[in-house]
Amino acid sequence: MAKSASKETPLMQQYNTIKAKYPGALLLFRVGDFYETFGDDAVKAAGILGIVLTKRANGSASHIELAGFPHHSLETYLPKLVRAGQRVAICDQLEDPKTVKTIVKRGVTELVTPGVAYSDNIVQQKSNNYLASLFFEKSTIGISFLDISTGEFLVAQGNRDYIDKLLQGFKPGEVIFQKSRYRDFIEQFGDRFYTYTLDEWPYSGDYATETLLKHFDVKSLKGFGIERLNTAITAAGVALHYLNETEHRNLQHISAISRIEEDRYMWLDRFTIRNLELVHSPNENAQTLVDVLDQTCSPMGARLLRRWIVMPLKEKKPIEARLQVVEFLVNESELREKLEHEIRQIGDLERLISKIGLQRANPREVCQLKRALHAIESIKQLCEQASNDALRTIAEQLNPCSLIRNRIEKELQAEPPALLAKGSVIADGVNEELDRLRKIAFGGKDYLVEIQKREAEATGIPSLKVAFNNVFGYYLEVTHTHKDKVPTDWIRKQTLVNAERYITPELKEYEEQILGAEEKILALETQLYNALIADLAEYIKPIQLNAQLIAQLDVLLCFAVVALKNYYVRPVIEDSNVLDIKGGRHPVIERNLPVGEDYITNDVYLDAENQQIIIITGPNMAGKSALLRQTGLIVLMAQMGCFVPAKEAQIGLVDKIFTRVGASDNLSSGESTFMVEMNETASILNNLSDKSLILLDEIGRGTSTYDGISIAWAIAEFLHNQPSARAKTLFATHYHELNELSTSFPRIKNYNVSVKEVGNKVIFLRKLVPGGSEHSFGIHVAKMAGMPPKLINRATEILKRLEQERTGGENIKDSIKKVQQQAYQLQMFSIDDPVLVKIRDLLNNLDVNTLTPVEALMKLDEIQRLLKT
After folding, report:
1. pTM reported for the whole predicted model
2. Which end of the chain, N or C, is less packed with Cβ atoms under 10 Å?
């Protein structure tokens, strides 16, 4: 082993030493002007980036795979690697190659992972990129969410369900936890997150607490209100430890840590967040609630909107405070337009000040900070003049930081380059030495033109020119035609096909002055710029507060714009158990209707005394699911502080929204539709309260008809008879038998989504009307879906036969058996016919107890295909 190592080149020895420290990462190794990858890393990088894979000699040891790209393309290639799920260690040259004779010293300056990134090309502008840190301890799990790109740091602790809900709502880019708990994590939260496991030692003793105390420079965590959340503190301390391990040490922008206050926010479990399609949809290209509501003017506002959507409030006072501002802005069009204009000038202030904390802000970004602070001053004045207390409170807290803003204005060029190395960053008049050096560097070049002119006249060589190359600096070039006119004191340096190149002592002297000045200018500009960045870091806290206030104002402004655009109304928020929506609409569906088609509005009334549970029957495609979802979304929007899509809405505060909507197999975990359905329903029944809203769609359809009816019936009965929690419930079902519940239970009422039969056609009216429905119209839906006409006719025959038999008092099982017997007689010329034998076997093997209507239609289709062969 030692022998082969000695055969390696010094460069590869250095590479392998550094690579060994970061075994799980793809190492980008700086060699001159390129970042190179070697071995397995090169194979991965070439595949992900589409760059050429070559080989290079590794001393006498062997050849090794190689793939690289120019260092200035890092911002292009790094995001692609991180998005592909790679952890990327960036290894830079730590000294100038010109100053050393041996191999250049190198080291990892940054480890970028899917959850630890702040580059604009990696993180999404409108959503946070959280690193989630978990700590499993007995029955409690601690969790922290840290976004290095914004400085947000949040903690919570609780049981599995609560942590699952938070993971679903915050959607972290990466989750870290103890190595020994990998199986626990996958069992409890699935494999849909990018995960990384750590050794056990950072989780033990007081290490995590000490890490937090040291970072915030405090004696205790009481000031943050998290001192009693021991498991959460451990998770948070390990998150900071992880940032340190990934070479991120300038973390002054992470200036506070706060608790996610569970009791302030409505409970939305992960099923509800998914089923209501709030910020993500399992369906490709589907619009979500955030797509409809997001009319924000800044990235901070867009991120806060997402947070408000998954964390609606459940206390009347703060909801009313938001609604009041929205109503004021709805009625003040001039103020609204001015605020929108100013907020658009601010850009992503939150991430910008974080880059200053990380010491990664470029000159152009610092100039953007100056523009943002100017806009904040204008917003402060506009809010001060408004006749609204909440806006005036925002104005009081906004700080335009005029001292540092004026300093940026004075010290930086008005339009500096993005890269400091390009020069011309610091303004004239800031530093005397810098101004002097600039005169030499740029005045010197003017002097070279003078030399050229003077020497051309003195020698009589009209084509004489002064030029520069990297080999011997500035030179005079003379064509062969005039070489006999060259003075004897010129020193010849190079002969070309058509010309000779010369240098003079005077040229060398000016070259030294110019080149020396350029190097000194870059060093001095870098020093002055870094001093400005260091002083800017003192303003991190007030500027972060500005960003938070602007984000709040932006979201409230967005709610006003959306309310006007989509004809939303202000909901009435009450501390009651009444939910009364008149003329409700689905906010997403109504935006996607064909031009000229109006959304059919519906009224929904629920309370705890008279109409606690509504059983909704009606055919598929009639709009039952849309009605359930729109009710949930209207309540959720109201408690976010947003106006709602309705004519009127009286919202008794809801503390939890539960949904069981649509089929969702979890086959990768070995769970059927029915099992998933039962898990979700169990979660509802075990967590409901008096102020809960429950939306149940097609409970029990994943099992046999009788099982399904029995389970659905028992659930409705359970919800009605629960003494401590009369949860408001909408229950959509295919089982018309459930209409019988209303005769036995006083708070259960029957409604149906009406349809109109015209001849053999069905028109869906999508209107909720009192009374139960007797038909499911499944065959009509199958016809609309394009099922073959023969199959539709046969299904209609079977349906008629079943209905006749059932009215005669027979049960469904006997009826289907009779229909099966009839099927034997269809076109039977000989029972020896192999096709008919197949049909007979197929029918004999049917288990009617587990057969759903769609499966029955598919079996009929299979029989029909057999007859055609």
Report:
1. 0.80
2. N
Pair of tokens at residue 192: 């849909």
State the residue for tokens 């009826």.
815
Weakest-pLDDT range from 228-242, 472-486, 847-861: 847-861
H runs (alpha helix) in 665-761: 673-687, 705-721, 741-744
Q: What are phi and psi of 642, to 5 degrees?
A: -105, 150
Name every residue whose Cβ is closer than 8 Å to that of residue 148 and which is 6 or more positions away in sequence: 116, 117, 118, 129, 131, 243, 248, 251, 254, 354, 358
91's torsion region: left (phi>0), alpha (psi -120 to 50) or beta? beta
Task: Tell me the DSSP string of 774-823.
Answer: ----HHHHHHHTT--HHHHHHHHHHHHHHHHHHHTT--HHHHHHHHHHHH
Helix axes 160-170 and 182-189, enclosed angle (nearest 10):
80
Give the span between the Cα atoms of 92 and 108, in whole angstroms.
6
Instruction: For 592-618, write each residue's pLDDT tens digit.
Output: 888 888 888 999 999 999 999 999 887
Residues 6+ apart with CB under 8 A from 777: 619, 620, 622, 755, 762
Q: Beta 152-158 vs 258-259: how paired, if at all? A: parallel
Question: Mind listing the pLDDT tens digit for each residue in 77-112?
Answer: 999 999 888 999 999 988 877 778 888 899 999 899
Query: Which alpha helices (DSSP H) does 22-73 contain, by range?
Result: 39-49
In this structure, are residues 145 and 170 in contact, taking their beta carbons and an 8 Å threshold? Answer: yes
The residues pairing with 475 across neighbouring beta strands, listed in sequence order, are 467
pLDDT score, position 5: 46
Which amino acid, one-letter code, is at 770?
P
Local confidence band at 666 (pLDDT 50, 70, 90 cut-offs)? very low
CA 327/CA 771 separation, integer angstroms: 38
What is the C-alpha end-to-end distance of the chain, expressed in Å? 69
Name all domains of the chain by residue range, CATH numbers in brackets.
2-112 (3.40.1170.10), 131-260 (3.30.420.110), 432-518 (1.10.1420.10), 572-770 (3.40.50.300), 785-868 (no CATH)
Write phi, then psi, for 633 (nearest 5 degrees): -70, -40
| Residue labelled with tokens 């409901």 | 688
687 Cβ contact list (under 8 Å, min separation 6): 161, 267, 269, 656, 658
- List CB contacts of 196: < 8 A, sequence separation 6 or more: 24, 87, 113, 174, 175, 176
Q: How far apart are CA 624 and CA 621, in angstroms?
A: 8
Please, is 338 exposed, middle or buried when counting C-beta atoms within 10 Å of its C-beta (0-12, 13-18, 19+)? middle
How many whole angstroms separate alpha carbon 321 and alpha carbon 93?
A: 55
Torsions phi, psi for 318 (to 5 deg): -65, -30
Cα dihedral sign for 99, 102, 103, 107?
Answer: negative
Q: What percent of the chain has a predicted confidence (pLDDT) above 90? A: 46
User: Residue 85: which of 122, 139, 132, 51 has the closest Cα?
Assistant: 122
Cβ neighbour number for residue 601 with a 10 Å cutoff: 19
DSSP characters for 210-251?
Answer: HHHHHHHT-S-SGGGT-TT-HHHHHHHHHHHHHHHHTT----
User: Tell me, what DSSP letter sits at residue 276?
Assistant: T
Name the H helices within 126-283: 160-170, 182-189, 207-216, 230-245, 270-275
Q: What is the pLDDT of residues 560-597, one digit of tens each?
A: 999 999 999 999 999 999 999 999 999 999 998 888 88
d(CA 835, CA 844): 14
Do β-strands 131-137 and 174-178 pair in parallel, antiparallel, or remain unpaired? parallel
Round to whole Å and give the CA distance between 526 and 421: 8
Cα 152 to Cα 132: distance, rounded to the nearest angstrom? 12
